User: Fold these one by one.
Assistant:
Number 1:
Amino acid sequence: MEILDVLTDMAKTGRLGPVFSGADWSDVTEALGEPCHTGSQSWKWPRLFAYGDLEVSVCRCRKVSIICVQTWRDVVELPPSAVGGTGTFLAGLSHEDVVSALDNAGCSWEPYPPLTFGDQSTLVVIPTAAHFTFEILEGRGPVLNSMSLPADGHDCNANAAKSREHASLQ
């Protein structure tokens, strides 16, 4: 399996193994093990965790909110239990490579103007809102910098208010 296969599958399904927006953090750590914490204040939520080049933002309600795969390095490392094999992939994907793979997989996409500016361009996959962000390198053209899956839009404040309301009714 190649990194492009992994990213295309993520764009189609909105998940990487047990990691998806809204997943319970305890389910993710049970499946993938303990990650590295990348934030500077380990007592504050939300928190950013990493499994190699897979970054996972976790809300204070302990639900996965944002998923990002950093692809700007020469080699991308992902949890082997989530992708199979070694989890190590060569990177350096061009815009043409990504667009061709998405088209072949039947993933409709379009340019994403809010994240396209200067030396950066982004496309969004329609069904899952996955973002593929490219850095435009002089002499090379656009090279994939990252792929991300957006938050599920839940509102912890609304959930906390509902819980308080429910508790006061009992």
Number 2:
Amino acid sequence: MNTLRSLLFTLWLYLSMPVFAIGLSPALLMPHRYAQGVAKAWARTVLFGLRWIAGVKVEFRGLEHAPSGAALVASKHQGMLDIVALLAVLPDACFVMKKELMPLPFFGWFAWKTKMIAVDRAGHAKALKDMTRQARARLDEGRQIVIFPEGTRNAPGVPGDYKPGVAAIYRDLAGPCWPVATNSGVCWPAHGFRRYPGVVVFEFLEPIPAQLKRGPMMALLEDRVESASADLLEPKAALAHSGPA
């Protein structure tokens, strides 16, 4: 039964992309907020299918800490659901993403129109400078910049290797950083098509204050995100369905 439900949800997920991208493609000719609205509607459609087809309920906690205006959001990253959920819940999310994703049909079109921050990870110092420049522009528009500090997906219970990009944006923008914890990989692993019924939680944590030095800021971010994410794992679920990262 779980295999069938997972296959049906996968069909729902991948059919929803062209339906929204092609059916609502006129939004690409309009101001960014219309394309952003299409992306948010798609994300909510995915969450609806995830709940009623795959049996995965998504909860958002700590919403009293969630930003409503310009902000830097740093989230634990365990799979695709992290993007979908934060896109659905934040007012105007702007993700830091790999540049090589931009040419993809559907996804790339709306990523370009909604002005996501595309980064060439092979560019090192130049890429970091370009990322902070784009981030500053998006913050000036009042958007929420979402970055996954680990730079890649990790299985539930596996600590990430936090990269310095988040500290560079934090320092350059001179504002707080909103951490987000999750257990998403337990129900939606990074690899494979199987989805496992249960409850996924995205928890907004207390913001890290502005203007900390890089070392203390990174240590505080990692400690808060990793500790809260570990607390969200059920005693025996941490690595049950995660597979390789």
